[in-house]
Amino acid sequence: MLSKLKFLVFASFIAAVSANPVVRNLILHEQRESIPKGFVKIGSASEEQVLNLRLSLVSSDAPGLENALYAVSTPDSARYGQHLTKEEVEEFVKPSQDSATKVNAFLASHNIQAKSISPAGDWLAFSVPVSKANEMFNADFSVFKHQESGTQYVRTLSYSIPTDLQGHLNLVHPTVTFERPFSAPVVSSPRMSIPKAQNVTTLASVPSSCDSEITPACLQALYNIPDTLATQSSNGLGVAGFLEQFVSEDDLELFLESLRPDLPSSTTFTLQTLDDGSNPQGAGQAGLEANLDIQYTIGVASGVPTTFISVGDTNSDGQLGGFLDIINFLLSEDNPPFVLTTSYGFNEEDISPSLASVLCNAYAQLGTRGTSILFASGDGGVSGSQSQDCTEFVPTFPSSCPFLTSVGATAGITETAADLSAGGFSNVFGIPSYQASAVSSYLSELGSTNDGLFNTTGRAYPDVSAQGENVLIAINDGGELVQGTSCSSPIFASVIALLNDRLIAAGKSPLGFLNPFLYSSVGANALNDVTSGSNPGCGTNGFPATTGWDPVTGLGTPDFAKLLTAIGL
Fold first, then answer.
1. Mutual angle of helices 485-505 and 288-298, in 10-degree steps
2. Which of 490, 462, 523 minimizes the C-alpha distance to 216?
3. DSSP per residue, 271-312
4. Rounded distance, CA 471 to CA 480, Å?
5. Count of CA atoms in the C-beta half-sphere (13 A) of 316
6. Is position 334 annotated in a ligand binding site?
7. Residue 49: how many CB atoms within 10 A of its CB?
8. Cβ–Cβ contacts within 10 Å for residue 3, how many?
9. DSSP string, 141-207
10. Could you read off the pLDDT of 399-453 as tens digits, one per residue?
11. Fewer CB within 10 Å of terminal CB in the chain, N or C?
12. 225-566, what's its fold?
C-alpha cells in the first residue's frame, strides 16, 4: 500500500506566550513525519543565526484563476486564446484586505515589517534570528546536511501559525521543505570533434547516424520541423538557467557552423538576469546544461527570438533556487515570453504540499497570461528526478503540477521510451479533467501491475516527449553526447515556439497553456505515439509505454506539420 504523505496538517491547538504583550493561540500548520531520506540532522541552529523567511498569503480568488486558465486554454471554449493582462491576473491573486491586515498585524506584534516580493503582493519577506523564528512559529529550527552533496540547510520539522491566520496564510518558507541540489544532464560519450551537418533533402529522410547521434537535422527529419526562418519579432522563447550554468557564445557559434550551417553563425540570444545572475565567457565556464538548452532552442526554433534567463544564487524565494523568483520576474513583465522551458526540477516529496500548490498556482498565472510552460520530467524513471533506491515510486515536481506541460524522453529513429524518462502520478495534485479519460484508459490496461506503488488518483505525467539520448552539443570547442529529459524539454519547446510564430503571423493568439489542446483528440492525433519501452526504477520495470498516453512518453513526440493543421493553419 502507498505510505501516507510525508506531510501532515493538524488541528491541535498550542498556547504560545512570549515576552510580547500580544498572546496568540497557535495551531500546528505543517509537519514532516521524519527527516527526509538523504539528510541527517547536525544539531540545533544557532539562536543568533538570521533566517530569511517568506510568507505566502492566500489569494483572493484562486478558483477564479484556475477557471480563467482553462477558459483561455481549452480549444472549444468561447474565450480560447483571450489571454489575460498582467493587471487582470493580479486581481485573482492579490490577497484580500482582511488577509493582508491580519498577517501584517501579526508581524507588527513582533516588531517586524515585511516587504512584498511578488507582483500581486501575495509573498512577503522578512529576516529574523532563529530564536525569534522559533518563538513566532513554535518551531525548532535545526541544521540538516544533505549527505551526498554536503550542503547544509536550516529547517524545522514542524511549525505553527496563529489561529486567526488560518485561511489567510498559506505557508512559511523555508521551513519543512528539504530541496535537494539540482543536477545537470549526464554525458553519454567522451569528448569528440563536432561533425559537419548532413544534408537532409526531404523531411522524410532521417540520416542513419541519428540512431546513435541526435542533431538538429535529425529532429527536423523525425518531427517534420521546418528550417525556414520564423518571422515574428513579437514571439519569444525563454530558457531558464540556474546553478551558475553559463552559455558559451563561442560554442553556440561552433554548433551553428557545424550543425545548422543554413543559419547565420552569428545568431545569438538575449540575456536577462535576476538574483545576481550572469553569463561570463571565460575559458572553461561553459555549462553543459546551459549550452544544451540554448543550442537546441536556437538551433531548432529557427529565427525565434530566444532569451537566456540567468538566475543567480541571491534568491528571494528562500532557497528554492530561484524557481519562484523567475516566475515572479516574468509575471512582472508586460510581455513575458510565449514559451518557457526549464530543465531542472525536484522530487515532489522534498517540497511541502502547501509550497507545491503555491508554486503551481504561480505557473497558472503565467499560463493565463499566454505562456506555454514546459519542464523536463526528470531522469530517474519511476524513482524520481534522478535514479535512487526506493520502495515506492517517486513523483517529480514541478512536472506533477497540472498547470504546465511535462516532457519525457525517447530514443532511436524508431522511437522508444528512454529508460531514464521520469513519469508517474502525483501524491499532491489530483487528476485534472483534461487527462482523466487518457489516464483511465491507461490504468485499465495496466491492471494490477505496480499495485500499491503509486497513487492512482494523482495528476499523471509526462504529457509529451522528445528525443533525450545521445544528443550532440558543442562545449569547450568540441562535441559531447548528452542524455536526459533536459534535452527533450527545449526540443519540444522549440516546436511550440515555431507554431506560435505561424499563429502570430496569421493574426492569432499564441498557444499558451498547452495541455487542454494536447489531450484533445485533435491535439493527440498530431503527435507520434510511442508504444515501446519503459522507465524502470525502485526494483521494478516501471511503467510500460503503450498505445495512447502512458507515464513514460506521455501522448508522444511532436509532428510539426500535423500540429500546424491541428491548430487550424
1. 30
2. 490
3. EEEETT------TT-B-HHHHHHHHHHHTTSTT--EEEEEE-
4. 8
5. 20
6. no
7. 13
8. 10
9. -EEEEETTT--EEEE-SEEEEEGGGTTTEEEEESSS--PPPP-PPEE-S--BPPPPPPP-SSTT---
10. 999 999 999 999 999 999 999 999 999 999 999 999 999 999 999 999 999 999 9
11. N
12. Rossmann fold (3.40.50)
What DSSP line would sit under 121-132, residue for residue? Answer: S-EEEEEEEHHH
pLDDT at site 520: 98
- Active site annotation includes 48: no
d(CA 474, CA 482): 10
Higher pLDDT, 522 or 2: 522
Residue 501, annotated ligand binder?
A: no
The three three-digit cell numbers of residue 539, written as one number: 526494483
Instruction: Render pLDDT for 161-211 as a digit per residue (tens, 0 to 9).
Output: 999 999 999 999 999 998 775 555 555 555 455 555 544 333 346 778 898
Catalytic residue among 122, 179, 289, 559: 289
Cα–Cα distances (Å) from 366 to 28, 52, 119, 126, 373, in that order, read 32, 26, 12, 25, 8
Residue 440 CA: distances (Å) to CA of 225, 445, 459: 32, 9, 11
Residue 481 CA to residue 276 CA, distance in Å, equals 31
Contact 69, 81 (CB under 8 A): no
- CA-atom Rg of the chain in angstroms: 23
| Active-site entry in 90, 293, 419, 480 | 293
- Checking if the pLDDT of 456 tops 90, the result is yes
pLDDT of 529 strictly over 80: yes
C-alpha 73/C-alpha 68 separation (Å) is 8
On whether 548 is known to bind a ligand per the annotation, the reply is yes
| Identified catalytic residue from 183, 486, 489, 534 | 486
Answer yes or no: are the C-beta atoms of 331 and 86 closer than 8 Å: yes
Task: Output the nine-digit C-alpha cell for 16.
Answer: 504560545
Domain boundaries, the chain: 7-59+94-173, 225-566
Q: Is 554 annotated as a binding residue?
A: no
Environment class of 437 (CB within 10 Å of its CB; exposed 0-12, middle 13-18, buried 19+):
middle
Which grid coordinates belong to 400?
506533477
- The verdict on whether 333 is a catalytic residue reads no
Interatomic CA distance for residues 508 and 568, integer angstroms: 10
Digit-coded pLDDT (tens) for 251-277: 999 999 999 999 999 999 999 999 999
Question: Which pLDDT score is estimated for 460?
Answer: 98
Count CB atoms within 10 A of the CB of residue 568: 10
The sign of the dihedral angle between the CA atoms of 175, 176, 182, 183 is positive
Contacts of 82 (CB under 8 A, 6+ apart): 71, 72, 509
Nearest to 502 by CA among 154, 228, 184: 228
By the 8 A CB rule, do 420 and 485 touch? yes
- Helix (H) or strand (E) holding 137, with range, is helix 130-137
Q: 46 an active-site residue? A: no
Percent pLDDT > 90 in the chain is 80
